[in-house]
Amino acid sequence: MKQLTWKDLPLGGYVLEPGNARKNLTGTWRTERPVIDQDACIRCRICWMYCPEPAILELKKPYTTKSGKKYDLTYEIDYDHCKGCGICAHECPVKAIKMVPEVGGG
Amino acid sequence: MAVAKALSVREELVKERLGLTSNYAAAYAVKAVDVDVIAAYPITPQTTIIEKLAEFVANGEVDAEYIPVESEHSALSAVVGASAAGARVFTATAAQGLEFMHEVLHIASGLRLPIVMAVPGRALSAPISIHGDYQDIMNARDSGWIMLIASSAQEVYDSIIMAYRIAEDSRVLLPVMVSYDGFLMSHTTEPVEIYHEEYVRKFTPRNLSRYRLDPRSPITIGVIASPEWYYEIKYQAIHALKESKSVIKEIHGEFNKFFGTNYDIIEKYMVDDADYVLITYGGASSGNAKEAAKRARERGLRAGVVRIRLFRPFPTEELVNAIKDAKVIAVIDRALTPGNTYEGPVFSDVITALYSSGVEKPVVSVVHGISQRTMLADDFYNLYKMLDEYAKTGEYPRRTVFMGLRT
Amino acid sequence: MKVYFRTIKDLPGEEYFGPGQLTCAGCGPSIAVRWLLKAAGPDVIVVNATGCIEVTSTSYPYTAWSIPYLHVAFENSAAAASGVESAIKVLRRKGILDTKARVMVIAGDGGTYDIGLQSLSGMLERGHGVLYVLYDNEAYMNTGIQRSGGTPHFAWTTTSPVGSKLKGKVQRKKDIMSIVMAHHIPYAATANIAYPIDLANKVKTALEYLDEGPAFIHVLAPCPPGWRYPEEMTVEIARLATETGYFPLYEWDHGKIRLNPPSNAHLDKSKRKPITEYLKRQGRFAHLTEEDIKEIEKEIDEYWDYLSRLVKAFG
């Protein structure tokens, strides 16, 4: 890839595209990944509220649990950005999130 | 014909002729360009600028937000913020105040903000001195600002009007400092022709196309750049400053045409056939030099003066062109660069300019007027006589001459 | 405080900060900034002081900010924000631009307690309509954990080390809220990342007051590497800070002081959790002796006594 020269950059080091830090894939930092048990999850929003990134996505995706409970929302991890801090698992009131080693733990 | 035309132009544009100090002239210019935000902190010899502006705002003559900040650091920081939000801004300072805002000087140019600041130059502490010289201004030299040095109250007024056009030009977008002699100009009353504001505003339309802080198109200003990016971003500003010279000349041309004046980035006084040239900046040095050149001419010496009006970017080609036929040259500095081969800062600039053009000349470094030590036209006349001696003997001082120093 | 968000379900979904910022895993300040912006919504301009959030969020050519953002330097965010606010006001008045935005400063404890205190005081005194938010991680974390005026008594930092003669920070934490309140601005409050609903309501309340003058919010935001605890504990430790009475939640609203839940119950000391619950989870306090802990407890009691007198006088 050709590297950008001084002529190619917007002046003053301005960044013109809002929120483009999304391109930093901070998920690569992770040593442990959170895994949400969708059947145990009670959709309380606490993990989503406390995530620093944010890397917990609140999706309008209906889900029916094995016990037949219906939810309109599904919480999923944005693994591209989740740094694996584990706040979500630690704060989850029903222990529906588990931290799983990234390597060898699958 | 040209003169007659210029006079008739001015007849229409000039609203009134007032006795003003250079500081008041600066304030009148800021009023004329319809400034939006002024941030001000008092320091001698600048204070009367911001007093006058406070008066204009208090009387409703200027519709601006006047931010009476708690320090010079905050003064420049506040106008950085205001400029980033799209406002036309002004601040002023001198000496310790300019040193205190030094950090933000680099940020203002790095962020490419069209800020205009007036600086009546003053000596730096310690020992503390409220009197004029150019040490503060020279210390700001490498901060990436466009720097104009005026030599009369009229020129201060005109330069500040020009400064807004230069700073806001899309090809430039850099801050501009308009400086002049502390006290000898800042507190000396001269006749100044004030223009009808409608004409000044016609000459200085706002550049509303530049990037600014606005939720409708959210941008980030003031990033952290790794070594992979810093160099390129910095070079953009370096390049813009260098290239601004042609825009500055163009705007000088337009100003002259519009207002019937005759400004250039250097001022030449009896230089065309001169053997001996004094290179000066600011009001007192240049005025004395011109008077001395007149006397020297009366006594048969072909004397001339080149006054540097645009200090950054340096008018290299224009200056070399003006002095290339002279026999001996002296550069009069009112500031010091301690520990350098020669202690005159602009002397070094002149030598560099000559070197870059392959011109070799005897050039003498002279320092005087430090902390406003009295300068006389006679001192300068004696300088011309010395230069004449040097030409005859081929010998000239290879170190800085500290004029007027008690030894 | 006006209640804009009653429960967790009312909290807004839109995001204006992140992801992709280079903050450490489990960063408390990142949670703070995320909620500041979510509460404020899109019509805000942020002026950010140099610090953790600044260096991690604007690493060129990327920005984590989806609202207009300005960083100038370390000590001058309040001054720069004064300029932004004045510009918006005058440009609207003169009909030159119609920018519609509230101005919010986001600065750390170094940029507020120490190097930025002068410009903060200037901004408050001049009465600019700016919300100044201090995210307090209690040390210069970005430069590698050096003590600041906001670092608590006895805390280990690299410039208040635990040595044979001196054990952690010798001085007490500066009472920044009292300094701010002494400027008699319309609104000042403490908040905590463990209580985002309270934080969001305070942000909205503060922004609504800006036509009258400045507002200030002091947000406690723990830092895993600086406070020396495992990163999943950030919220728990933040919560304990308030539950133990170390960091009370309260607000100064037009001259009235009000303690907010859960701190409103804590005038009664028995309702506070033991301070050891807070201290023992953090490596920066690992060296504390029984006596040190007693001293900290005494200082907390003194602060509560001061607060109770404030509440009595201004409640």
What would you say about this model in short?
The complex is a heterotrimer of chains A (106), B (407) and C (315). Chain A is mainly beta and 106 residues long.
Account of the 3D structure:
The complex is a heterotrimer of chains A (106), B (407) and C (315). Chain A is mostly beta strands. Chain A has a domain at 37-106: Alpha-Beta Plaits, CATH 3.30.70. Chain A is 9% helix and 21% strand. In chain A, strands 1-6 form a two-stranded antiparallel sheet. In chain A, a hairpin with a 5-residue loop joins strand 3 (63-64) and strand 4. The model of chain A has no long low-confidence stretch (mean pLDDT 95). Chain B has 407 residues and is α/β, with parallel strands linked by helices. Chain B folds into two domains: 2-259, Rossmann fold (3-Layer(aba) Sandwich); 266-402, Rossmann fold. Chain B contains 14 helices and 16 strands. In chain B, the strands form three sheets. Chain B has a seven-stranded mixed beta sheet with strand order 3-2-4-5-7-6-13, sandwiched between helices. In chain B, helix 4 (72-84) runs parallel beside helix 6 (102-110) and helix 11 (283-298) packs across helix 14. Chain C has 315 residues and is α/β, with parallel strands linked by helices. Chain C has a single domain (14-314), classed as Thiamin diphosphate (ThDP)-binding fold, Pyr/PP domains (Rossmann fold, 3-Layer(aba) Sandwich), CATH 3.40.50. In chain C, 37% of the residues lie in helices and 13% in strands. Chain C contains eleven helices and eight strands. In chain C, strands 2-1-3-4-6-5-7-8 form an eight-stranded mixed beta sheet, with helices on both faces. Chain C starts with 27 loop residues before the first helix and ends with a helix. The mean pLDDT of chain C is 98. Chains in contact: A-B, A-C, B-C. Chains B and C meet through helix 4, helix 6 and strand 9 of B and strand 1, strand 2, helix 3 and helix 5 of C.
